Amino acid sequence: MRKAISYGRQTIDQDDINSVVDVLKSDMLTQGPKVEEFEEALKNYTGAKYAVCCSSGTAALHLAYLAANIGKGDSIITSPVTFTATANAAMYVGALPVFADIDPDTGNIDPVGIEDKIKYNPSVKAIVPVHYAGFPCDMERISKIALKNNLIVIEDGCHALGAMWEDSEGNWHKVGSSTHSDMTVFSFHPVKSITTGEGGAITTNSKALYERLKSLRSHGITRSAKAFVNGEDAPWYYEMHELGFNYRLNDIQCALGTSQLKKLDKFVIRRSELACLYSNMLSKYPFIKTPATGEKVRSAHHLYPVQICFDELGISKKELFESLKAIGIHLQVHYIPVHLQPYYKKAMGYREGDYPKAERFYKNAVSLPIYPLLSDEEAGAVSEALISTIAYIAAGSLKAARA
Question: Domains plus CATH for the chain?
């Protein structure tokens, strides 16, 4: 039996380990200089004016919604093909998530669907496009829709740190530059582009949003004398101005993030090589649809999601998963559409059939292993095992049907 191949994993080297050890030997493990160092590095990489790191991608979404004053009586438009946190964070602030169906070629939210939802939802305050699998959404078009309707745009870039897209004038934009949005949120979970263990960040070009995000991240407290209301000014003094949270990221994690960020472009290049290898091997099979590509986008390739025609082949996705797991290859599915989750069915009345493109996408979706440490030989083995297992299961199903 071969060494087990997971669908994703972190890439940690000695530089990363040394950066963490240095902090452990220092005087400050949290709220120290490494936090600002990581934020400065994120700003420099993405091109945004401001960056605020926090404890997770979910915390980043929550803070972004709060900073944008999204709350009770409001709704946000987002994709049903995302992790539940995108929608959950709206519920945390009392707002409601409204879904627009996807473009089945990319898995991203369809701008036409966004416009349709705005027509019938006067409570919409924000659009939250999700860069699914690291493939950038059509931000130029989404931005125009938002401007026309006076809406906030918060990019869910949790899959897409390192991704880029080209606008109609030939200018390239990194996801996180927030050139066509108010804020962009990221996740640093171990399977993402870079990792801090757990962690997240928000980038923005608005100083007002930046200041609000920093306050909300740390209990709503300020230590700036210029902002004090009570007039007292002393070395120990601070004031709480609003109800915030402890969503801080510590110096240990920020040191790891800063070290990882230096290697991000190398990670993205390696992921792109693996995606190309997979596509070259799998695209010749008519029952497998490989991920979208485009001249005007550079995907971060956080995921490599294929679409397999299970019904046409007469095979079970569960059987495929279990068969490959038995030989040490672990697949995944991204995602069960949020509107099909029992909570959202009960809370908001969603039902099967509401978003047919998203549901069809989920039905056929399989995410193959992809991460920088995956070798060409391992990716080749995954491809060969996938094809041979599909053929074996399909042959068995055909034989059973004829019996």
Answer: 14-261 (3.40.640.10), 264-402 (3.90.1150.10)
